[in-house]
Specification:
The complex is a heterodimer of chains A (219) and B (227). Chain A has one domain. Chain A contains 6 helices and no strands. Chain A starts with a helix and ends with a helix. Chain B has 227 residues and is mainly alpha-helical. Chain B has one domain. Chain B has a two-stranded antiparallel sheet. In chain B, helix 1 crosses helix 5, helix 2 packs antiparallel against helix 3 and helix 7 runs antiparallel to helix 8. The longest helix of chain B has 30 residues. Chains A and B meet through helix 4 and helix 5 of A and helix 6, helix 7 and helix 8 of B.
Chain lengths: 219, 227
């Protein structure tokens, strides 16, 4: 995404988030869980963004590992930080919903467990980059690839092994009055994700420029 | 292809020969596994009786902890006299070297598993042997998957600072799916009325993990093991 799109996208994201609570409030209550189920308008888009971050990090890490492109590494670390951030939001909203809906903070079903594992995987990625010393970028890229290949197991876990979680067919079958606010929130979070990714990647680029200048000066 | 397996066999033989002379890893990891089982057995006993199905989790947790120890020590050995650099500089396919190391680690973990299963069976009245074939298959496929991922991470962290703490940080999130499948399959086997269909499902999932992770490790070993 170019720098030219940053400001327009920031405005779009801000506008959509300003409108989102109104749209969510106007949406009808879900039949069985009532008002509480409205957390789905934030909980599910947040996990979509987490998966998007994981995939971007994984693919960029693959490109960095096999083609040695520094720009891919900068994109990977930016995406990993966002994956951890959005995952944290998902892991916060999920238990809030679970406590009211199912009576427990953490249900230990397959999907929540594997989602937690994915989050830990990318926290480990960030720890490795921070504390692994020189050369840890390539090692972290390898770890990100493993994390990305775990994602299909997270997504299909509900379909393979019946759990408390709604099945993955719920989203495509949302009725019209609910689907509208839901996809509005998805697009709002997507705009936010792209804004943050672009900003974070730009920060890494500038850090690389400063490092190059410092090295040139020390020589 | 035969050259690939010949090199893997040579590397594995080298590791076995080094280990047979010192027996350091076998003794220390087997003892550590015994201590693990003891600690967990104390933790999961109520009123003098073990908690139901606790032995399934204990076997796999003990395996995970001792496996991680064995992995880090196996590659630490290669650091002395720059042996790891020598292995990487050898004019052979690097993935064959990796497969050789992996086979050595799997053999070591099998020895440790025999010790762990013996003590768990002793403390928990032998429920693990109800369906020996399926249990052994589950242990074998789980060990291969865990060792494959662990060998890759241990190799790539061997020359990194903070490797002692980073190996478990990296290893456990990636291998937890294998541990979940292993524990769930073992639980299905040790029930008063074992659920063989469920155990076979978890075994199939573990084998699927193995295929995916082995492919991934062989694919990424070359670019990860750089100077």
């Amino acid at each position: 995404m170019t720098r030219r799109l940053f400001n327009p996208l920031l405005v779009v994201a801000a506008g959509m988030f300003a409108a989102a609570p109104i749209l969510v409030a106007l949406a009808p209550n879900e039949v069985t869980m009532g008002l509480v189920a409205k957390i789905v308008y934030f909980h599910v888009p947040v996990w979509f963004m987490m998966f998007l971050g994981v995939f971007i990090c994984g693919i960029a890490s693959g490109v960095y590992l096999f083609k040695d492109k520094q720009s891919a590494d900068r994109l990977a670390v930016s995406a990993a930080e966002l994956a951890v951030l959005f995952g944290l939001m998902g892991l916060t909203t999920g238990p809030l919903w679970a406590r009211v809906s199912w009576g427990l903070w953490w249900p230990w079903d397959v999907r929540t467990t594997l989602a937690l594992i994915l989050e830990l995987n990318f926290v480990a990625y960030l720890l490795l980059r921070k504390y692994g010393g020189p050369g840890s970028e390539k090692l972290a890229a390898g770890l990100a690839l493993f994390g990305m290949f775990n994602v299909p197991f997270v997504y299909v876990s509900v379909n393979v092994w019946r759990t408390l979680h709604p099945e993955t067919t719920v989203v495509p079958t949302l009725p019209g009055p609910m689907a509208g606010p839901f996809w509005w929130c998805v697009i709002a979070y997507l705009a936010l994700f792209l804004v943050m990714l672009s900003g974070r990647r730009r920060l890494e680029e500038q850090r690389a420029i400063v490092d190059r200048l410092r090295l040139a000066h020390e020589r | 292809m035969s050259e690939f397996f010949r090199i893997a066999w040579l590397v594995m033989q080298k590791d076995i020969r080094v280990e047979s002379r010192s027996r350091e890893l076998v003794y220390t990891t087997a003892f550590f596994a015994t201590s693990c089982v003891l600690v967990f057995s104390i933790a999961f006993v109520r009123g003098g009786r073990p908690i139901d199905e606790a032995e399934a989790g204990i076997v796999w947790v003990a395996l995970a902890y001792t496996g991680q120890l064995a992995l880090s020590r196996t590659f630490e050995r290669e650091l002395s006299h720059d042996a790891l650099r020598g292995l990487l500089l050898a004019p052979v396919e690097r993935s064959s070297v990796f497969v050789g190391k992996l086979l050595g680690i799997v053999m070591l973990m099998v020895v440790v598993e025999v010790v762990v299963v013996f003590f768990v069976s002793l403390f928990f009245s032998g429920t693990l042997f109800k369906h020996v074939f399926w249990f052994s298959a589950l242990m074998a496929s789980g060990t291969i998957g865990f060792a494959a991922v662990g060998a890759l991470f241990a190799a790539m962290l061997a020359r990194t600072q903070s490797r002692t703490v980073l190996l478990p940080v990296l290893l456990y999130p990636v291998t937890v799916p294998i541990l979940i499948a292993g524990v769930s399959g073992t639980v299905a086997l040790i029930q008063p009325e074992p659920n063989l269909d469920l155990a076979r499902f978890w075994l199939a999932l573990t084998i699927f993990f193995d295929v995916v992770f082995l492919t991934l490790t062989l694919w990424t070993f070359e670019p990860l093991m750089t100077e």
